[in-house]
Specification:
Elements lengths: L2 H6 L6 E5 H4 L4 H5 L4 E7 L6 E8 L6
């Protein structure tokens, strides 16, 4: 079971979803700093407990 694939499927338009483990990885907080963020707990298929998910808003690329 691939947790990353399950978390990716939660992301909406102009949004990236990350697990708590990814958010705690070195350097990640510097990358997402300044972006709109929220967190909640989600049940993921194949995982026996709720996981903390961080939703990070991203801006569409300007052309």
């Amino acid at each position: 079971m691939n947790i990353a694939a399950r978390v990716q499927g939660l992301a909406g338009v102009n949004e990236v979803c990350l697990t708590e483990a990814v958010m705690e990885a070195p350097g990640v907080s510097d990358i997402v700093k300044g972006h709109a963020a929220s967190r909640d707990h989600e049940n993921l298929k194949g995982v026996g407990q709720k996981m903390e998910i961080h939703r990070i808003g991203i801006s569409p690329t300007q052309r």
